[in-house]
UniProtKB/TrEMBL annotation:
Signal peptide start-end: none
Sorted UniProt keywords: ATP-binding, Nucleotide-binding
InterPro entries recorded: Aminoglycoside_PTrfase (IPR002575), Kinase-like_dom_sf (IPR011009)
UniProt GO molecular function: ATP binding
Keyword ATP-binding set for record: yes
Entry superkingdom: Bacteria
Domain Aminoglycoside phosphotransferase: start-end pairs: 32-258
Protein name: Aminoglycoside phosphotransferase domain-containing protein
Secreted is among the record's keywords: no
């Protein structure tokens, strides 16, 4: 078997862990991968001698690519809202290392089934309402038009051009522009609250002895449309539920949000339309991100999730007259493109 390549960054991380001192008595040689995400960040679990934290998580966020400060700030905001987040136990911003409380390894995705889903999603909806109810102006960057547009641009750049090897005609570009303008107008008109941006089954943890869920991966949080995180939760790229079930959970969340005096639309039909249109923006972005993760970053694990995300995309685009040109575009792409090396 070929030897694994030397990892100088891991050596640097272990040296930092060893230097945490006797209060932690952390064993650098016990570092094992805990998880990775779709960025340059990595996470390692380490054993310590601390009575309250026998294990902890070390976040490796290379300063050339990542900034730990937004994570620390959002952790404070969400924690103050009464949500379970991984407390920052030690930090070294110059090197890009954080020592975090260990929320375990049981993700929602690993535990969700027909018997557990109602309870887990009830807990998640309660946590989401607490986060949104804590919203204060000026704390988080705005999910503004420029950011929403950059996300939408990932679809033609990475999914269409790179993944499908297709080029949009002038007429198709005009259709794309018309659809995205309609989406942006809807998204920007929605009430603004704290938005996690990836509030889904891989970033929510099932906990013992603490309030569910444990919430991870929130460093990209913004102030944006109130339906965004609900879409992430119930139209999850990694697990599918029947639409009738999605609707039931969404109604329960909407009722809870209204009781908390959150600015959800008092007409559920209008709220649901906002939910769907926000979801379409998100899913077009995700198609682009998953394609980029494969073609740019060599991460092929997300390819298996493309069909579900495309299913969500087509369902919503087919329901609204203003979005039907997207169906025409997708049909043309499906007929013209032939991705090389794999099929779905």
């Amino acid at each position: 078997m070929a030897a694994l390549p030397h990892d100088p960054r891991l050596d640097q991380l272990k040296a930092w862990v060893a230097g945490l001192g006797p209060a932690w008595s952390a064993d650098p040689e016990s570092c094992v991968p805990a998880s990775a995400d779709a960025s340059f960040r990595r996470y390692f679990r380490v054993r310590t001698g601390h009575h309250a934290h026998p294990t902890a998580i070390v976040m490796d966020a290379p300063p050339a690519h990542e900034d730990c400060r937004p994570f620390i700030h959002v952790c404070q905001l969400f924690g103050a809202a009464g949500v379970t987040v991984p407390t920052v136990l030690a930090q070294d911003l110059e090197q890009g290392f954080l020592l975090l409380a260990d929320l375990g390894s049981q993700t929602y995705l690993s535990k969700l089934d027909d018997s557990s889903a109602h309870g887990l999603y009830t807990d998640a909806a309660a946590a989401l309402v607490r986060i949104q109810a804590a919203t204060r102006p000026g704390e988080l960057p705005a999910y503004d038009r420029a950011l929403l547009q950059r996300e939408l641009d990932l679809f033609p750049q990475w999914y269409v051009a790179r993944h499908l090897g297709a080029t949009l005609t002038e007429a198709q570009q005009a259709d794309w522009h018309e659809v995205t303008e309609a989406l942006l107008a809807n998204n920007l008109a929605q009430p603004q609250v704290y938005v996690h941006r990836d509030f889904h089954s891989r970033n929510l943890m099932v906990l013992e002895g603490a309030a569910n869920p444990g919430v991870l991966d929130f460093q990209d949080a913004v102030a944006g449309p109130i339906t965004y995180d609900a879409v992430s939760l119930w139209r999850d790229a990694y697990i599918e539920w029947e639409e009738e079930q999605q609707l039931d959970w969404l109604i329960r969340y909407w009722e809870r949000a209204r009781k908390a005096a959150l600015p959800v639309n008092p007409d559920f039909g209008e709220f649901y339309r906002d939910f769907e249109w926000m979801g379409l923006q998100r899913h077009l972005k995700v198609l682009g991100i998953f394609a980029r993760l494969y073609h740019r970053d060599g991460k092929d694990g997300y390819l298996a999730n493309l069909p579900l995300v495309m299913k969500y995309t087509r369902q919503v685009a087919g329901r609204y007259t203003e979005l039907r040109k997207l169906i025409r575009l997708l049909d043309a792409l499906e007929g013209a493109a032939s991705p090389a090396g794999y099929t779905f």
